[in-house]
Amino acid sequence: MAVYLHDIPLPEALDRFNQALRQGGxxxxxxxxxxxxxxxxxxxxxxxxxxxxxxxxHYHASAMDGFAVRAAATAEAMLNQPVTLICAASAGEKQAAxxxxxxxxxxxxxxxxxxxxxxxxxxAGLPAANPRRPxxxxxxxxxxxxxxxxxxxxxxxxxxxxxxAGHVLRPVDLGAAAACGxxxxxxxxxxxxAILPTGSELVEIGQPVRPGDIxxxxxxxxxxxxxxxxxxxxxxxxxxxxxxxxxxxVQEAAAEHDLxxxxxxSSAGSEDFSARVIASLGEVLVHGVAVRPxxxxxxxxxxxxxxxxxxxxxxxxxxxxxxxxxxxxxxPLLARWLGRPPQEPLTVEATLTRKVTSPAGDDDYMRVAxxxxxxxxxxxxxSRGAGVITSLVRADGIAILPRGSQGLPAxxxxxxxxxxxxxxxxRTIFAIGSHDMTLDLLAxxxxxxxxxxASANVGSQGGLVALRRGEAHLAxxxxxxxxxxxxxLSAIRQYLPGRAVKVVALVGRQQGLITARGxxxxxxxxxxxARPEVTFVNRQRGAGxxxxxxxxxxxxxIAPEAIRGYTQEEYTHLAVAAAVASGxxxxxxxxAAAAQALDLDFIPLYDEHYELVIPDEIxxxxxxxxxxxxxxxxxxxxxxxxxxxxxxxxxxxxxxxxS
Amino acid sequence: MAVYLHDIPLPEALDRFNQALRQGGxxxxxxxxxxxxxxxxxxxxxxxxxxxxxxxxHYHASAMDGFAVRAAATAEAMLNQPVTLICAASAGEKQAAxxxxxxxxxxxxxxxxxxxxxxxxxxAGLPAANPRRPxxxxxxxxxxxxxxxxxxxxxxxxxxxxxxAGHVLRPVDLGAAAACGxxxxxxxxxxxxAILPTGSELVEIGQPVRPGDIxxxxxxxxxxxxxxxxxxxxxxxxxxxxxxxxxxxVQEAAAEHDLxxxxxxSSAGSEDFSARVIASLGEVLVHGVAVRPxxxxxxxxxxxxxxxxxxxxxxxxxxxxxxxxxxxxxxPLLARWLGRPPQEPLTVEATLTRKVTSPAGDDDYMRVAxxxxxxxxxxxxxSRGAGVITSLVRADGIAILPRGSQGLPAxxxxxxxxxxxxxxxxRTIFAIGSHDMTLDLLAxxxxxxxxxxASANVGSQGGLVALRRGEAHLAxxxxxxxxxxxxxLSAIRQYLPGRAVKVVALVGRQQGLITARGxxxxxxxxxxxARPEVTFVNRQRGAGxxxxxxxxxxxxxIAPEAIRGYTQEEYTHLAVAAAVASGxxxxxxxxAAAAQALDLDFIPLYDEHYELVIPDEIxxxxxxxxxxxxxxxxxxxxxxxxxxxxxxxxxxxxxxxxS
Lengths: 659, 659
Fold this sequence. Notes:
The structure is a homodimer.
Chain A: H1 10-23, E1 32-36, E2 50-51, E3 61-62, E4 66-69, E5 83-86, E6 96-99, E7 111-114, E8 119-121, E9 136-139, E10 149-150, E11 161-163, H2 171-179, E12 184-188, E13 192-197, E14 202-203, E15 214-215, H3 218-228, E16 232-235, H4 243-256, E17 259-263, H5 274-281, E18 282-287, E19 291-292, E20 298-303, E21 309-315, H6 319-338, E22 347-352, E23 356-357, E24 363-373, E25 376-381, H7 389-394, E26 397-401, E27 407-408, E28 413-418, H8 422-425, E29 428-433, H9 438-447, E30 452-457, H10 459-468, E31 475-477, H11 489-495, E32 501-515, E33 536-539, H12 544-556, E34 569-570, H13 573-581, E35 587-591, H14 592-597, E36 601-615, H15 616-619, H16 625-631, H17 634-641, E37 646-647, E38 654-658
Parallel strand pairs in A: 13-16, 13-17, 14-15, 17-21, 19-24, 22-25, 29-30, 33-34, 33-35
Antiparallel strand pairs in A: 1-12, 2-11, 3-10, 4-6, 4-7, 5-9, 8-9, 18-20, 20-21, 22-28, 23-27, 24-25, 24-26, 26-28, 31-36, 32-35, 32-36, 32-37, 32-38
Helix pairs in contact in A: 3-6, 4-5
């Protein structure tokens, strides 16, 4: 049976799925379980309202340490006309009795006088040895009935509604339920979700990997999501791409679970069996939803028994698609089964930093970094690739470019569904510019001081442009001026005319050629790049390293066309090193630390200054103060100095002020 | 040894505590544990940064289902000048090879052409039977190097920072850690927290309660808080108020835990042993903090061994104080021990609905309900009592009235630290006015339709006043006009002059006398209230029931002074019933449902109309639409009709329009 991938809009996909769930009778609570009140119930969802069984307090309680009295007996008391009340039973009718806070009011009393407002006396009329066990008390003011008493039901009156059904339990809710006489709560049963990783290319975490092997971690992410949303996830072992094996696994999982997540094989490739398996066990409702990333999702129902079907979701294989499929399809389904409202992200309005394009046919889930620069909250698009899980890790939120839109211009307003607390955005330092490995160390040290460093690697020139546009707090830059031999100053004058900025030294570092271990092609200098058997990997235009290369090539009279791979551009030092490590190139120009990180050889050629360019108003801001603390912190300097090819002697120095 | 309660300001208390922690060497991480990557790690805190061990992808991977090629070999291809590339090895040098998405790029290739852009052919030059296993492919466009390839390191380059230390793990973080070659993570050890309930008046949940018994649930709330904040709580059984027993328990707990919470006995009452126990085992640093509720808190250190001390917190016994002590003292301590930032509430700016007073010496943590009426976000103070745990359950947030302030006037701006998602506030219906038990049922039914009903019981007149001030969406009212016999209309004209409002029927209900079971004092009518041996319990001024009572008393010529207990006022029908049930009064005027709820007798006297008064602009709002749905829902009508003394025949009818 052939099943075709045909994208349909998200609302229609959800409609079809929900209709099938209703018809299948799996639309509401899956069951109710009664559990004893226990701290582990936090996060569980009430299947039924909690009505008070007991009042709280369930008796009239003293609200203070003090003496129970009849208010009427105090009516005549005045400062100069004290009234004496008898405490000891032997001395006559009881008129006052000591109570600790919380003690029940005696039948005969209707008020409490705090102990500090009475004079406790012994038989001789002297201050009592134990002020809580006097013979009599003397009082000099009257009290009104019910003073300092917590009347029965002050907090909760029996029969009243304490918590509604569908409520997600918090710590105080458990206390309130106990206070009003409950020992157990009736909770929505947690949905059982089977997670089935499939794919012959998959290897379990911890197994050795060869090219073509993919570490299977989608099941980990999906299971963690399911548990977080109130379900009970079970991860199955990897099933290879064989129809019969997947078929058997889905049948087995459907027997004992409420939902099956089949990952991946949801596309239409040669070994994508999900749709065929689902069709053979039930029905494919939707194959392909117009969302991106994540469109090859499958929604279906599979038979557990002749009369019962359960839903199955074919989850795409790319990790970003898989995680978003969880958010879009799994979370709302779990919410319905638990009887709670679906989770709702906080949203903020932000300004898009650069133009983005988007396929008009899809709802496009764009990951963005969000931070405040000046008075604007900015949203900077992160990698759009469905395979780039770090784009979700780094994302501060998601902006949806709706179907029908072909993109947005720079500066467009954007609603961002946040993954983070909004206050964190205010503590985010946007560092846009050249990449250096010390920025990762800096991020780690800043995290310990309450700042988040979000860095985007767009090269030195790109960083200065971002500063000009007010889209960054600082730019890492190492732009050599071929005329003067100075770093950064002429570029600052060119890109930031009229702006007052400070330039702070971060590190001195060596630039050189990164080659394979043992330098098999015996590369020694830039001249070797022109050799026909040598393939080079370049940095992108605007990168300081590229400026350095072009300057040195022109000095040496080497034409770029003579260099094989000159047009092959990477955006970071590590990416250049990775290209060399993989054999894609024989060498690239970069820093020593990148070579060492991937165990490559390094031929040092030049010393350069890597500096931070910071607009004056930001330089003095509270946001950046922790940055300067870190730059003068010995532990940070040591960590940087431990990387090869770095000179930290000028770190933190104010190198120049441009105004 | 005598220890005195002496309140000091919160910052100073925290300073002393933190200094002792530093001196005791328990200021940072308590330890590191390495655990295998697992979905249960969500919420755990990284003790160390995660640096990438592997790149991801760790090889050049095809980004599409398609054919691997050398880009150079496609350079000449054009629409009318196709290029043919050989796939089968037998037919010569391999020039193209089919790849599924994710397959590694062969050594000889540097680009991928998607399968939909090629013509797969068999030996005869006809379309191949299996398009993925053709003899040759024909292409009609060139590709550039690295097209449709995910280069090694596209997502993560080995050695880069993936997650910083102190990061709280989310599902996608686990995926990223696995993607870059980690099998285990090094995590902050969870702080072990002993929770010791003490008090001879305490009984465990589920035990029978007698007057004076207090159900012990603070340990449940504290344990749930500790677990939620990343600690590992252990609840101990109740220890009675005996110095030696508490002393032994604290010693025992200190041996195996990082923190001891001793609840309660932190005050200075006759059986408050906490401070003495702590002093005998170590040192009391602070006894009494100028925070309300919660001031009798103790901060101290106790010796585990001759060289090691651990912190102990004496937590006050009132449940609101106990929960707030958790938030103020325990959460930040756990955050520090876990190396994560302390939790940070969202805040909103709201307008205070009514004047509040506050002790000038304390930081006063006021619980508030928050909702939007018109364009104003309003904060309505809830019960200030430290014993009223429902004030925390119902609270949408906390507003702190700082030390030095003696209160705030109505209309003052207020910063509220939210307990709820801000979007929930926008879905909150504020019902202020007369109490009726159907409002609890209504709240339950509305919860199922995405609305939260926050009701405050201030009596019918109070509700109309709240509408006038723009502080409520609707008011429940049953105000009889003694002149006309009509309900509500004349009061609306008086309290809401010139305002256009709608009046909607909720229920007809019987008012009558609530008496003890069996009616031992043989009360039959309002005339009996004047009998000297009968004690009455009244409703507050402005309540519809009070208006009814006063009207009938004047009709009957009975003077209020003749009624014992006339000045004893309660705010709800249930509170009146509770007063009768407890023996505090012999009877009160109220509704049948309240009598039944507490198993009391009811002597019906009058029929009345309980109606909802709703300003026109709110009547038509989206916020209220679900309310009208519920009013016409048979299940809701049945639930109300099942209560005694209710008539639902007119429920939902538009009774009157006033403009």
